[in-house]
Write a structure and sequence with these properties.
This protein is of the alpha+beta class. The protein has three domains: 85 residues, Rossmann fold, CATH 3.40.50; 70 residues, ATP-grasp fold, A domain (Dna Ligase, domain 1, 2-Layer Sandwich); 238 residues, ATP-grasp fold, B domain (D-amino Acid Aminotransferase, Chain A, domain 1), CATH 3.30.470.20. 34% of the residues lie in helices and 28% in strands. Strand 9 and strand 10 form a beta hairpin. Helix 7 packs across helix 8. The mean pLDDT is 96.
Length: 450
């Protein structure tokens, strides 16, 4: 079993990993930037070290510093969390070369799934449904025009190295296409160091449904059901739930089987998520991408299955078999997660960094809060704006919505603006409550000004 883990991350996910390690009797080493010296993960880890200045590139993305520290402190493994280096194949390979366990998939699996056009072709070859589009990278404008002509407008231009809603443009005609092609290539080069783009048919009315998978080094791969992430703003998820209101047990089994096939195609180990576009009118789904890491929204899956995904990651990385087989997986009740961000929903979600003067999270039966905030904590403006993830679990969706409303109304965060008022209004919105919506929900409905 792994004895000592360096957590190459910050915020709530670092806290989450440290807690799981403590329960497994594993020592923990936290890393932090100069801006994060008072962060909660720094306080609760067994050891904590500053690895660089405020900028992520000099600290949380500094591969050499992180690996050097892991070796100096006697760690035998590194957990990357999500974001930062979690899907960096070079970092995973560096860990291996330095005789450190990377708690995640192999560098080869990250590379195959992280490069979106390669992932599409890998899935196509494995027989997993993919959205009609280009075969690999689109090299020039003439090729882009030809692909769009073949599949029909509207199309979506995507950076092959993209993620987090960046490097994406929708084109409804040739003029859009040429402009979007140039802009997306430039944005991709700047943001990801890779200008490669590919083109897909843009399906306008769909739900964003993802399947959680787990794999071990013995060839076992299982799925833990779906998460519906259709409530998004600018392609960033705000609310996640499981099960999906649009998925029945038959479709769950079909999508789960496709996700397992996808994972097996790249010899996947650890926790990963296969994301699908789900056309709920035609009851068809298409592979979108695979996230080769733990997801922000993993707690909802844990609540309905009772399986601790972080502990499973660590056990698999230690060389153990998965603790459950597919037939053991049971789905109990309904879970919803709201991402509480330091943003002002009344001012177009303007960021609201600053000192938390009062922090009082909700509690009670079926309420979980994953957070790194506390009274007196200063939320820095340099990283993501998440304050907390509020998760509720109840027997039915209606009860889960009611529980979420109660929990949100109890949640006190003073000194900064948060998205709590937005989530409260969302939970009271008739269309959300009905469960019949798509990814355009927030484009269609002004939740803050009904």
């Amino acid at each position: 079993m792994i004895k000592k883990v360096l957590i190459a991350n910050r915020g709530e996910i670092a806290v989450r990993i440290i807690r799981a390690c403590k329960e497994l009797d594993i020592e923990t080493v936290a890393v932090y930037s100069e801006a994060d010296k008072t962060a909660l993960h720094v306080q609760i880890a067994d050891e904590a070290y500053c690895i660089g200045p405020t900028a992520s590139k000099d600290s949380y993305l500094n591969k050499v510093n992180i690996i050097s520290l892991a070796k100096l402190t006697g760690c035998d493994a590194i957990h990357p969390g999500y974001g930062f280096l979690a899907e960096n194949a070079d970092f995973a390979e560096m860990c291996k070369e330095c005789h450190l366990i990377f708690i995640g998939p192999s560098a080869d699996a990250i590379s195959k799934m992280g490069t979106k056009d390669v992932a599409r072709e890998t899935m196509r070859a494995a027989g997993v449904p993919v959205v009609p589009g280009s075969r690999g990278i689109v090299d020039d404008e003439d090729a882009a025009i030809q692909v769009a002509s073949d599949i029909g407008y509207p199309v979506i231009i995507k950076a092959t190295a993209g993620g987090g809603g960046k490097g994406i443009r929708i084109a409804r005609d040739e003029a859009d296409l040429l402009k979007g092609f140039r802009i997306t290539r430039q944005e991709a080069l700047t943001a990801f160091g890779n200008p490669g783009v590919y083109i897909e048919k843009f399906i306008e009315d769909f739900r964003h449904v993802e399947i959680q998978v787990l794999g071990d080094t013995f060839g076992n791969v299982i799925h833990l059901g779906e998460r519906d992430c259709s409530i998004q703003r600018r392609m960033q998820k705000l609310v996640e739930e499981t099960p999906s209101p649009a998925i029945d047990s038959e479709m769950r089994a079909e999508m789960g089987e496709a996700a397992v096939t996808a994972a097996k195609a790249v010899d996947y180990t650890g926790a990963g998520t296969v994301e699908f576009i789900f056309d709920h009118h035609k009851r068809k789904f298409y592979f979108m991408e695979m996230n080769t890491r733990i997801q922000v929204e993993h707690p909802v899956t844990e609540m309905v299955t009772g399986i601790d995904l972080i502990k499973e990651q660590i056990r698999v990385a230690s060389g153990e078999k998965l603790s459950v087989e597919q037939n053991d997986v049971q789905f109990n009740g309904w879970a919803i997660e709201c991402r509480i961000n330091a943003e002002n929903p009344n001012k177009n979600f303007m960021p609201s960094a600053g000192q938390v003067e009062m922090y009082l999270p909700p509690g009670g039966f079926g309420v979980r809060v994953d957070s790194a905030a506390y009274t007196g904590y200063f939320i820095p403006p340099y990283y993501d704006s998440m304050v907390a993830k509020l998760i509720v679990h109840a027997p039915t969706r209606d009860e889960a919505v009611q529980k979420m409303k109660r929990a949100l109304s109890e949640f006190v965060v003073e000194g900064i603006e948060t998205t709590i008022p937005f989530h409260l209004r969302l939970m009271n919105h008739d269309v959300f409550v009905s469960g019949d919506f798509n990814t355009k929900f927030l484009e269609t409905y002004d939740v803050m000004n009904p």
